[in-house]
């Protein structure tokens, strides 16, 4: 579903989350452990502005930033079906790496994951007034992926503040 043509939007950029991962099923070099400093641009929309005149008060996004830092700052990301999982878990237990297991470590799936985190935060707080409609996840300047969708619940809040 595309973003409505009318409404308020804004974006927030989060950067410098150095982590490593591997795509074990890839036939080329991506199957090897390699790292990037991931970054995220998160786009928000609102049916109407909050009492301060914001789509989203950026200072209220600290819980999202905390999730990003926990998941991606100096961590090792692996797919849940990685055949070396036992070894990665052993290295984690030995303190050699900070393991995070994901369904899919790719940037496309990562963008969708962050989209979900942002919308969980906003739905609980704003009850449908605001949402995250797009996330761009980048592994470097050249490579990135986006996930874009409006959550089903967006726009259900009282719109008397328009």
Percent helix, as a range, is 10-25%
Proportion of residues in extended strands? 25-35%
Low-pLDDT residue spans: none
CATH H-level superfamily title: 6-pyruvoyl tetrahydropterin synthase/QueD
List the secondary-structure elements in sequence, H or E.
Answer: EEHEHEHEE
The number of E-state strands comes to 6
> Quick one: CATH class?
Alpha Beta
**What number of structural domains do the residues give?**
1
Indicate the CATH topology.
Answer: Tetrahydropterin Synthase, Chain A
Number of helices: 3
What does this structure look like?
The protein is of the alpha/beta class and 162 residues long. It has one domain (8-148): Tetrahydropterin Synthase, Chain A, CATH 3.30.479. 25% of the residues lie in helices and 31% in strands. It contains 3 helices and 6 strands. The chain has helices at 62-72, 85-93, 107-126; strands at residues 8-21, 34-46, 75-79, 99-102, 130-138, 144-148. The chain has a 6-stranded mixed β-sheet with strand order 4-3-1-2-5-6, sandwiched between helices. Strand 5 (130-138) and strand 6 form a beta hairpin. The two termini are 22 Å apart.
Write a brief structural summary.
This protein is an alpha/beta fold. The chain is built from 3 helices and 6 strands.
Blueprint (SSEs and pairs):
Blueprint: E1 8-21, E2 34-46, H1 62-72, E3 75-79, H2 85-93, E4 99-102, H3 107-126, E5 130-138, E6 144-148
Parallel strand pairs: 1-3, 3-4
Antiparallel strand pairs: 1-2, 2-5, 5-6
Helix pairs in contact: 1-3
């Amino acid at each position: 579903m595309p973003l409505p043509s009318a409404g308020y939007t804004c974006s927030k950029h989060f950067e410098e989350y150095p982590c490593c991962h591997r795509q074990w099923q890839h036939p080329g070099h991506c199957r090897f452990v390699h790292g990037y400093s991931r970054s995220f641009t998160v786009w928000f929309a609102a049916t109407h502005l909050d009492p301060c005149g914001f789509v989203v008060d950026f200072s209220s996004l600290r819980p999202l930033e905390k999730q990003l830092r926990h998941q991606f700052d100096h961590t090792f990301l692996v797919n849940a079906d990685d055949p070396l999982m036992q070894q990665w878990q052993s290295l984690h237990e030995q303190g050699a790496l900070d393991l995070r297991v994901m369904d899919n470590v790719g940037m496309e799936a990562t963008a969708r994951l962050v989209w979900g985190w942002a919308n969980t935060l906003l739905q609980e707080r704003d009850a449908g007034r605001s949402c995250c409609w797009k996330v761009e996840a980048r592994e470097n300047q050249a490579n990135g992926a986006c996930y874009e969708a409006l959550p089903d619940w967006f726009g259900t809040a009282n719109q008397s503040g328009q």
